[in-house]
Amino acid sequence: MQTTINETVSFDGVGLHTGVPVRMTLRPAPAGFGIAFRRVDLGGQPRIPAVWDAVVPGALCTKIAAPSGASVSTIEHIMAAAAGCGVHNLTIDIDGPEVPVMDGSSAVFVAEILRVGLRALDAPIRAIEVLDRVEVRNGDAMARLDPCDHLEMAFHIDFADAAIGRQDKTMSLANGAFVHELCDSRTFCRAADIDAMRAQGLALGGSLENAVVVKGAEVLSPGGLRHHDEAVRHKMLDALGDLALAGAPLLAHYTGVRAGHAMTNALLRALFARPNACRIVTASPALAARLPGAGLSRDDAPRVV
Fold first, then answer.
1. What is the per-residue pLDDT for 305?
2. Domains, the chain, ranges and CATH?
3. Catalytic residue positions?
């Protein structure tokens, strides 16, 4: 059955790129609603559906906008949390232009979603089954979807800094794997890039407390890495959040090679531009049990410091 959260939960923080203080509140929503943001600080409180064709260009993040121009950026971490916890319907009220960065991962969002729990709704889960390979490329970057009976992901990154270097990871995202393996992995950057980003008006809310900052072989953030391959795990976290904009759980094997937010969105656009490349299916109990949030409980919540 489709789900929503049991009760309202709020988060206070700052936007990673804007540095603007913001409050974000997750509210239960009815079956078939999907996930949508509501800019409660703007006149008329415009609603912005979290779907692939609402994505507009955004630097180093995923940004969605309504026809009125109202927008919300850096939505990927909360979208990953919702998808990874199996939340299908949600209203997200926000009083600023960017989702709060929290610790740079999805862990705080996941912990609160699992704390309040999910409520089953009287409607079946619809999933998107990929039927044929769809691929997009840009130089040496690539993103691809292949048929699969659940969601799998493979990702490859390659950075000059030895603290990151070459990293590869492949995993199934069935049965809570996102919560157990990926949700606490933080966004990362090179120390050499920080001044350039800030000169462009980016990373204004970034700090060593909400991002992994590396310099050569050194990790500058206190406490070091949470995983030896935290960088590629975070890229997978981002990819799950971006794929959640498909509007329903995907049954596919996703491969990303140096892929970022724009490329994953281009992949969804390519998928839906081919009518025979996918189909909507009603999830049987067996299929529902293979979806990312299946079987999770409060006991699975990540430890948040």
1. 62
2. 3-124 (3.30.230.20), 126-298 (3.30.1700.10)
3. 261
